[in-house]
Amino acid sequence: MSDILVHTEAGITTLTFNRPDKKNSITAAMYGALADAVAAAAADPAVRVLVFQGHETTFSAGNDIGDFLNNPPATEDSPVFRFLRGIAQFPKPLLAAVCGPAVGIGTTLLFHCDLVYAGDNAAFSMPFVNLGLCPEAASSLLVPQMLGYHRAAEALLLGEPFMAEAALEVGLVNRVLPPSEVTGYAQSVARKLAAKPLASLVETKRLMKKGNAALVMATMAEEGASFGRMLGEPAAREAFGAFMERRKPDFSKL
Ligand code: COA
């Protein structure tokens, strides 16, 4: 079975992270599949809504750390960057159903979604600093915009998880539900959207996003350059090595 499931029905494309044994962490090959599916959904006039989901216990543990070390994104056309540009520029409604851990890109992709539904077990985290890295997916812009600077500093400098209720309070999440109801609820909202006139949805989204659009793309490119450089530096090597060896990283000399 594929690590990314793509299912299109009644105008709704649903992308499911499906690598439960590795907590739905995302490899370069998975980013490639995601980028292709997002581009296809954007281009297909029969698709009106795109939904991301994981499983009841896990949304995604973010980048696959081993794969990231072995296949770091080297150019702007790397699968991860293609995926990020795809979701940032996706013209139609983008929804997410999130349960369990949503780490790194598992959280930052949500800032590009129009509607987010979370299980009461959802735990969001952006531990880039703890990994010797910096934010990606324009999160250095979008997190302060949504959370306010000081809460963004807590989320991005400390990198500590925050739970569904806190995400609801700051507006990252539209509604918190029991985990067993999240994907069903997201699909019911997707069906409501799919019944509306597509051109109106697309134009309304474009108008809501246009003030930020150029800045989002510029921020994403700047972050990508820094992130790529920092992946090869000692702090990231120490953090990733520590994860693989199941020990605490030691940044005392870095
Ligand atoms: N990359 C690669 N493998 C990962 C992974 C990741 N990001 N996250 C989890 N896994 C693997 C673990 O190595 C483990 O593999 P194994 O069974 O072969 O040993 C398996 O998934 C289960 O993970 P485990 O840590 O035992 O699950 P947990 O329920 O205790 O914790 C998380 C879940 C998501 C909180 C924890 O796995 C975690 O913090 N992962 C790293 C997240 C991260 O830093 N992502 C990078 C963001 S840029």
Summarize the structure.
The protein has helices spanning 28-43, 65-70, 79-88, 105-108, 139-147, 149-158, 164-170, 179-194, 198-231, 234-244; strands at 4-9, 12-17, 49-53, 94-98, 101-103, 115-119, 123-125, 162-163, 175-177. It is an alpha/beta fold and 254 residues long.
Explained architecture:
This protein has 254 residues and is α/β, with parallel strands linked by helices. The chain has a domain at 4-176: 2-enoyl-CoA Hydratase, Chain A, domain 1 (Alpha-Beta Complex). It has ten helices and nine strands. The strands form two sheets. It has a six-stranded mixed β-sheet, with helices on both faces. Strands 5-7-8 form a three-stranded mixed β-sheet. α3 packs antiparallel against α9, α5 crosses α6 and α5 packs across α9. The protein starts with a strand and ends in a 10-residue tail after the last helix. The mean pLDDT is 97. Bound molecules: coenzyme A (COA). Coenzyme A binds at residues 22-23, 25, 61-66, 101, 103-104, 127, 131.
Features:
binds coenzyme A; alpha/beta; 2-enoyl-CoA Hydratase, Chain A, domain 1; 254 residues; 9 strands; globular; three-stranded mixed β-sheet
Shape: globular
Calculate Rg over CA atoms: 17 Å
Beta fraction of the residues? 5-15%
Kindly provide the name of the CATH class of the domain at 4-176: Alpha Beta
Give the arrangement of secondary structure elements:
Blueprint: E1 4-9, E2 12-17, H1 28-43, E3 49-53, H2 65-70, H3 79-88, E4 94-98, E5 101-103, H4 105-108, E6 115-119, E7 123-125, H5 139-147, H6 149-158, E8 162-163, H7 164-170, E9 175-177, H8 179-194, H9 198-231, H10 234-244
Parallel strand pairs: 2-3, 3-4, 4-6, 5-7, 6-9
Antiparallel strand pairs: 1-2, 7-8
Helix pairs in contact: 1-3, 3-9, 5-6, 5-9
